[in-house]
Design brief:
signal, 23-stranded mixed β-sheet, Fimbrillin family protein, 3 helices, GLUG, 56 strands, single chain
Length: about 625
């Protein structure tokens, strides 16, 4: 079958006498019988019937014939052969289409009686066999069945119908420019007999044929294939890239029907029109960041439904600055984002740059992050650089580095909360560095968090600097049931404070926190097993440290510079105090904290396995 130019087609051929009779039609044999071989079957014309179209679920019904430039019709070509049989029995004749559209008998049939209204059946291809549908990139595969009525006095009009179904894929928008070829997953072969599919076989990818058509004066590029009816089609592939794409709705084609699929570029996300976005891929997450930052959709809710691989992706944080504060809810759904890499001079850096009050990020794991900023005012974190919001049940691994403030989870936390988060990332800062947060202030809270990575401050100024296993500098915030096990080191000029839990506790509260295993080192600075400094300043009150512990981290005192005198720290030396005792005291302190702060419940407790092993945190939700 070759393409012709027209919108619809009824194939017509002038009435053709297929053979010259040896006698006239009134010279009958005895009774109703006709002389054998004397009255040939005459075919007046052949047509390809226009059958009702069907489009599921992508658009309005369309007419299905087959292959023309406009995609709406087809015709027989010269030398196409089809078979014919009278009353579905007896001999089978073969007829060949001529250049002018007429037909010529190659193996003619003859009428044997003068009965009226015989049924004549026909089919294409003329013989049975196996039809290969796997590569239709150059021409479509066809299977046709036809029928008509006639007698020895009446020429027959044969009307053919398609016994395969047609699937067309029309790329739109950005997808059009990216599609070079399309593949459809269905049967790649079928056996057939008398123009009817007997059985489909060999599931696999069919290579579709590129086509063009015009609709309402608009030209479209598309891809088509004829397929075996009855096989439910659920997926396609583009450019042979081995990436299966699921259809929005499955198709179970019927013979003679047309199915048009509009192929949009996968944005990687969907939205419900109510500000709720579902992300399914790395491209989708990148597009969402663009949507937030460039279109000021700062309060949308984002939900991951799959693990995301950001390796090789040029990442722009969601919520890039003060004027673009993300205030929606990001729900990771327990999924993992791998390979987030940012090397920049931007100020606010992480998966998120800036989260405003009420914004929430929860239930996501970040693995193999590499986040760096050389901005001298930078706030860098694995999850978020600068936050007034709430960070819940997030985990980070990899490395985080900033030229000012750096934290494994959050660079700077101003009010809001960090709950149930952990980090094994290596964290490096110049002014502030912490395993969970580089800097906290404004009455925020950290609860049930822990860090196991190494923390370092390399101060290159004459100003003060702070490093802590959990928080670099804790200002006016509450740390409850938090611990660190990594080393905390510092170097450089200026006054430096380093502590196992926090470098400094400025008017803040530490309850049931500890540091173990790693070392605290700050040559020429001020160090403490729990806090480098507990700060009072000019206020009549200062930091409060209760039931906090440190293990063998090279320190002899829990607080390096205690301006307050609360002294709520104890060293675990394995003789007078062990980790079982520490766990008991810390858990009791958590309960007391709950009782005195009923509006700030702590759903975390410590569990110990033995006296020499530091306890771990367990959620009691």
């Amino acid at each position: 079958m070759k393409k012709r130019h027209s919108i619809h087609l009824l194939l017509a051929a002038a009435a053709l006498l297929l053979a010259t009779a040896a006698c006239t039609k009134d010279e009958l044999a005895d009774g109703d019988r006709l002389p054998e071989g004397q009255y040939p079957l005459e075919i007046a014309r052949i047509t390809l019937g226009v059958e009702g179209g069907e489009a599921q679920p992508w658009g309005a019904p369309a007419t299905r014939v087959s292959e023309k430039e406009d995609g709406n019709s087809s015709k027989f070509d010269a030398d196409d052969k089809f078979a014919v049989q009278i009353d579905d029995k007896g001999e089978v004749g073969t007829y060949t289409v001529q250049n002018d559209g007429s037909v010529e008998a190659e193996t003619p049939l003859y009428w044997s009686d003068r009965d009226e209204a015989h049924t004549v059946t026909a089919w294409y291809p003329a013989t049975g066999g196996t039809l290969d549908l796997s590569d239709q990139s150059q021409s479509l595969a066809y299977l046709l069945g036809g029928s008509g009525t006639g007698d020895y006095l009446t020429p027959v009009t044969l009307t053919f119908a398609h016994r395969l179904a047609k699937v067309r894929v029309t790329p739109t928008g950005d997808a059009l420019g990216e599609v070079q070829s399309l593949q459809l997953y269905t049967y790649t072969q079928c056996t057939y007999e008398k123009g009817t599919v007997v059985q489909g076989s060999q599931e696999g990818w069919i290579e579709m044929k590129r086509c063009e058509y015009t609709e309402n004066g608009v030209s479209f590029t598309c891809w088509e294939a004829n397929v075996v009816p009855g096989y439910t089609i659920t997926k396609l592939m583009a450019n042979n890239d081995n990436k299966e794409r699921d259809l929005s709705a499955a198709i179970t084609p019927e013979a003679g029907k047309f199915y048009n699929i509009t192929l949009d570029k996968d944005k990687g996300y969907t939205d419900d029109g109510q500000g709720n976005y579902t992300v399914t891929s790395a491209e989708g997450l990148k597009n969402i960041a663009k949507l937030v930052n460039e279109q000021w959709n700062l309060g949308i809710n984002i939900t991951l439904t799959a693990d995301i691989d950001l390796k090789g992706i040029d990442w722009t944080p969601i919520g890039i600055d003060y004027n673009h504060q993300y205030t929606g809810t990001f729900d990771g759904g327990g999924h993992t984002i791998t390979g987030l890499t940012v090397t920049t001079s931007d100020q606010y850096v992480g998966l998120f740059g800036y989260i405003g009050s009420g914004g929430t990020v929860k239930d996501v794991t970040l693995e193999e992050v590499k986040i760096e900023s050389d901005n001298e005012m930078s706030a860098v974190g694995g999850v978020v650089g600068y936050s007034y919001g709430n960070i819940e049940n997030c985990s980070v691994s990899g490395s985080v580095s900033g030229n000012s403030t750096a934290g494994g989870v959050v660079g700077a936390q101003l009010s809001g909360s960090i709950t149930g988060c952990s980090s094994s990332a290596t964290v490096k800062g110049v002014t502030y560095a912490g395993g969970i947060a580089g800097y906290t202030n404004g009455g925020g809270s950290l609860t049930g968090c822990y860090a196991t990575g190494s923390i370092s401050v390399e101060n290159n100024t004459t100003n003060a600097a702070w490093a802590g296993g959990v928080v670099g500098s804790n200002g006016s915030s509450t740390l409850t049931a938090c611990y660190a096990t990594g080393s905390v080191t510092s170097s450089g000029s200026g006054t430096i404070y380093a502590g196992g839990v926090t470098g400094t506790n400025d008017f803040g509260t530490l309850t049931a926190c500890y540091h173990a295993n790693g070392t605290i080192s700050c040559p020429g600075g001020t160090t403490g097993g729990v806090a480098g400094r507990n700060y009072k300043g000019l206020m009549p009150y200062g930091g409060i440290i209760t039931a906090c512990y440190w293990g063998d981290n090279g320190q002899t005192q829990g607080i390096g510079e205690d301006q307050v005198g609360t002294g709520g720290t104890t060293k675990v030396d394995g003789t007078d105090v062990d980790w079982i005792q520490a766990q008991s005291v810390m858990s009791n302190a958590i309960d007391v904290w709950n009782g005195s702060n009923p509006d700030k419940l702590c759903n975390w407790h410590y569990e110990s396995t033995d006296a020499t092993t530091p306890p771990t945190l367990v959620s009691i939700n």
